[in-house]
Amino acid sequence: MSVLEEAKRVAAEFEYSSEDLNRGVKAFISQMDEGLQKKGTSMSQIPTYVTAVPNGTEKGLYLAVDLGGTNFRVCSIQLHGNTTFSLTQSKVAIPRELMVAKTSHELFSFLAKQIENFLRTHHNDHFEAHVKRRKTMSSGEGFRNEEIFQLGFTFSFPVNQIGINRGTLARWTKGFDIDDAIGQDVCELLQIEIDALHLPVKVAALVNDTVGTLMARSYTSPGKTGTLLGAIFGTGTNGAYVEKLDKVTKLKSMVEGADYDKSTGNMIVNTEWGSFDNQMSVLPNTPYDEALDKATPNPGIQMFEKRVSGMFLGEILRNTILTLVKDPKCQLFKDSNSSTDNLHSTTTIAENSVLYKQWGVDTSFLSIVAADVSPGLKVTRQELSKGFGVDAASTEDAEAIKLLVNAIGKRSARLSAVALGAIVISTDNHVSTGGGDDDVVDIGVDGSLVEYYPGFEDYVREAFREMPEIGAQGERRIRIGIAKDGSGVGAALIALVAAHMGGD
């Protein structure tokens, strides 16, 4: 069997047919509904207590902070009220010792100090006026609301949200480990330290970055239509969407006294769709997926994410390449082919090649290969040599790699379409029979896959056309736009919504 035939055989294992796709959509809708009704399901369907999306006319100056990993970002966002905004920001690395501090006070007082530094640097007039006023105030007097910055806090760790600005930390991830913070309200922990520094700041909203993506897109998107859905297809994947409040039946059994605005009849729900179908009833599976899952710290969890997001696609590709390289019958990266191709060369794989290292292949490699139209796939061969220690790979070797890359990328995009399509269908957006051109469904997306992987959106749209409830006519009514900076402008917009609700 030639190298290309071998690669085609492996690539075929990643095919995700129309039938599979539509089975996936049905299962996704059913797991969404289950998540709206009760807690403890694989798709969490978390109510965010945000009940409206912006329309682009909102104005004002808001703060946003983002604790997403090893950096802490502070921004101020001036909303101009015409779908545009200006953003000022600063970023600081979190000292390693604070990530594993003895007490949460150490970390959160550091964060509050960064907010103070930011206000002194970028909003000094407002800050100094506040300091002066505080000195002349009598002890019982409070600040006027207009003097206080409303802040949106993007906190990218698992939390149990119990109000628009209340959420208890479930567990740390990403190298953080501060025991006494578990079970505490993270907004309160930050507010206590802000108050200790007498800053004119109120933590108005706890923000999930996916919900922020939805809000940012809804503010900046053209036309009158609010955005239905915000989705991230990057290192990880998740989606948040606007649901009818009366469908979120588990709210009744959840927290007592959570304050939210019921007048809109809507609730933005954070799906946590990375864990769609953890039970593997409809998701596609291959030996390469199984090998990846076994090697992760959380086998059997986030099974949808492990087939879709950027963090995992490079490793799936590495597993397919290794399988072919180790097969004595397969000629990938072996001399018998390269001798006819490059007369004087012999293909070798360096002993320390990233092909032999777990997580050694970055997903950016897939984007480079998918975009390669150079003669003889020269770019891919250079990349194999420079990044992988595969010397003198043949054109046929490169073509084989491209087949595998396309198969893995296409499956990821078609699975992404399952999530997006299921939400469009389940929220009763009758796109296949909708009205005129104004009758659009708007989706905001962010993340490296959707931005940089060639043809990702085309594959998604092709999948939409294969869904009978959407079809060719409906697909044309779905508008997909990049939404930048959910954790900045999106967080500011949630703070705005919260301030208008009069949060607690």
Automatic annotation (TrEMBL):
EC number(s) given by UniProt: 2.7.1.-
Domain of life assignment: Eukaryota
Residue ranges annotated for the Hexokinase N-terminal domain, each copy included: 7-219
Keywords of this entry: ATP-binding, Glycolysis, Kinase, Nucleotide-binding, Transferase
Alphabetical list of InterPro entries matching this protein: ATPase_NBD, Hexokinase, Hexokinase_BS, Hexokinase_C, Hexokinase_N
Gene3D superfamilies according to UniProt: 3.30.420.40, 3.40.367.20
Recorded GO MF terms: ATP binding; D-glucose binding; fructokinase activity; glucokinase activity
Signal peptide: none
Annotated pathway: Carbohydrate degradation; glycolysis; D-glyceraldehyde 3-phosphate and glycerone phosphate from D-glucose: step 1/4
Family note: Belongs to the hexokinase family.
Name of the protein in question: Phosphotransferase
Organism name: Letharia lupina
